[in-house]
Design a protein that fits this description.
Layout: E1 5-8, H1 15-26, E2 30-32, H2 33-41, H3 45-52, H4 54-71, E3 75-77, H5 86-92, E4 97-101, H6 104-111, H7 124-142, E5 145-148, H8 154-164, E6 169-173, E7 179-184, E8 200-205, H9 210-220, E9 225-230, H10 240-253, E10 260-265, H11 267-279, E11 285-290, H12 293-299, E12 304-309, E13 312-319, E14 324-328, H13 337-353, H14 356-362, H15 366-370, H16 375-394, H17 409-418, H18 425-442, H19 449-458, H20 470-478, E15 490-495, E16 498-502, H21 507-518
Parallel strand pairs: 1-3, 1-4, 2-3, 4-5, 7-14, 8-9, 8-10, 10-11, 11-14
Antiparallel strand pairs: 6-7, 12-13, 15-16
Length: 528
């Protein structure tokens, strides 16, 4: 028997707080050896030190740790000094151990004046510095992984630990119909748990995803009867004719209200699957299995579904929350680099409108971003989904704050339409974000043009565009669904993480700003 994970670290590293949340996330029990000692001695730890001395406490701690390591199967937190004992360190070599490290300033802030911590009750800063220097090599000796906690929230620490354990993390999208988004390798394995009382399932998939879709069908084939419905690739699937074909197939399969539709594919397929589910029998359950980064962080989450018409993109649709979204990061290993980069455009968007830490992560080691088994990628996906989840829970039907998710999309959708959807969505949105930054600068809000360009170019996204006709682009933007009473609305930034919905930008302002970006003649910055 061995714990799921043992947490070690100095006072103030958050072992107990993070440990409880981690145990809850994993569905296991949490145990703290300090609490075990208090219960056995019927005294608080400062009293034990005062009445019996540190040697007595360390002996009690050694026994408590040995017992917990032998008995406990969940998450186990050890006292800060437990690793001082050589016998304890030997036992820890047989268990999975995470070292929660913390910088001095953060540790002192968290510990405060040392109330309840006898070793740091006098001169906390000097004592904490000595403890950190003395114990760090011992923590590192027993640890399998290390998480630096100083700049992280407890939720972020837990997400890192979950990822390092190889398990999925979960973001709950609130609102009237809450649902979970599961993120991690092998998230698809949880599909059966979400089928409910369904007897039939229809899997919508594009040709490129046929092998994966058939593997999904085989996985659930013992639970439900499966109808496979192939739809065209990309935006070609999002038409009334394709939706009507799907309805006909659902009728032939006798898919009822208790049954489920499963979308397996990129953003276009998940958009279509959601729309078909929303309209079939006035609404049946849909489970989304996004297979592109773009779909994971955007299209599959939020409950916005839609199809295209000759007038524009997603002008016909419905709000229909999925039953679940399963983001299986292992599927991204076969995604072409250009498609991966296009997905990063939506990730970057989330960073600019709500979460600056996303921008910091993308400014680091790009090799960690591209690796599908990387904790950095998992954290980027989780953070991006959390941004959308927070907005959607507040504004499901896009009457207010949800419009902020359209940052870069007014121009982006215009580019997609005039280019007849030959541009990837993320590429168009990348140019759209540069345009939005240029409009904000011209309007006297904030100048983020250079920072936006630099980050987009770093991941291989275009930052300029030469349209055949500026007037055609302007016309396409005017009929976008974000236009209000014939007036264009732009999401602009007053600073990073300070978005605003703006409708008082003059025609001259936005045309001049956009032309400034679109006429950039650097050939290396055009769409690849």
């Amino acid at each position: 028997m061995s714990p799921t994970l043992v947490l070690v670290g100095p006072p103030g590293s958050g072992k107990t707080t993070a440990g409880k949340l981690l145990a809850d996330r994993l569905g296991v029990e949490f145990r703290d050896t300090d609490a075990d000692i208090v219960a056995r001695e019927n005294k608080q730890i400062p009293e034990i030190f005062f009445d019996h001395g540190e040697d007595y406490f360390r002996q009690s701690e050694r026994e408590a740790v040995a017992a917990a390591l032998a008995e406990h199967e969940g998450v186990l937190a050890l006292g800060g000094g437990a690793i001082l004992d050589s016998q304890t360190r030997r036992l820890l070599h047989e268990a999975p151990v995470a070292f929660l490290s913390v910088e001095l300033a953060a540790a002192v802030d968290r510990v405060g004046l040392g109330v309840g911590r006898p070793l740091v009750s006098v001169n906390p800063r000097a004592t904490m510095r000595a403890l950190l220097e003395e114990r760090r090599p011992l923590y590192e000796e027993v640890a399998d992984v290390t998480v630096a906690t100083s700049a992280l929230t407890v939720d972020e620490v837990v997400s890192r630990l979950v990822t390092l354990l190889g398990g999925p993390s979960v973001v709950t999208v609130g609102g009237q119909t809450p649902y979970d988004v599961t993120i991690g390798p092998d998230a698809t394995m949880e599909l059966v748990d979400h089928l409910g009382e369904a007897q039939r399932a229809a899997i919508l998939f594009s040709p490129v995803m046929e092998q994966h879709a058939r593997a999904v069908a085989a996985f659930i084939g013992d639970t439900v009867s499966v109808e496979m419905i192939e739809v065209p690739d990309a935006e070609a699937s999002k038409t009334v004719d394709i939706a009507a074909m799907c309805w006909d197939r659902l009728a032939q399969a006798q898919l009822g209200r208790q049954d489920v539709i499963i979308g397996v594919g990129g953003g276009a397929v998940t958009d279509l699957a959601g729309f078909v589910a929303a309209t079939w029998l006035r609404g049946v359950a849909v489970i989304q299995l996004p297979t592109s980064l773009l779909a994971m962080v955007d299209a599959a989450v939020g409950g916005k579904t839609g199809i295209n018409t000759s007038a524009g993109k997603n002008l016909v649709g419905a709000f229909h929350a999925p039953r679940a979204v399963l983001c299986d990061l292992s599927v991204l290993s076969s995604l072409p680099r250009a498609d991966f980069a296009a997905g990063l455009a939506e990730v970057i968007k989330c960073g600019f409108i709500a979460d600056p830490q996303i921008l910091e992560l993308l400014s680091g080691d790009l090799d960690e971003v591209w690796r599908t088994d990387s904790p950095v990628l998992a954290e980027l996906v989780r953070r991006s989904i959390q941004v959308k989840a927070d907005v959607v829970a507040e504004d499901f039907t896009e009457t207010g704050a949800r419009a902020f998710l359209n940052y870069g999309h007014t121009v982006g959708h215009g580019i997609e339409k005039v280019e007849q959807f030959t541009w990837r969505h993320g590429e168009a949105v990348a140019v759209g974000m540069v345009c939005a930054a240029a409009i904000a600068r011209r309007a006297g809000r904030v100048d983020l043009v250079d920072r936006t360009r630099a980050l987009l170019e770093r991941v291989g996204l275009p930052t300029s565009y030469t349209p055949q006709s500026l007037e055609a682009l302007y016309d396409a933007m005017q009929v976008d669904k974000k236009a209000l009473a014939g007036s264009l609305r732009f999401v602009l930034l007053d600073d990073v993480a300070k978005p605003a919905l703006v409708s008082d930008i003059s025609s001259a302002q936005w045309k001049e700003a956009i032309a400034e970006v679109l006429h950039d003649d650097r050939p290396d910055l055009q769409r690849p």
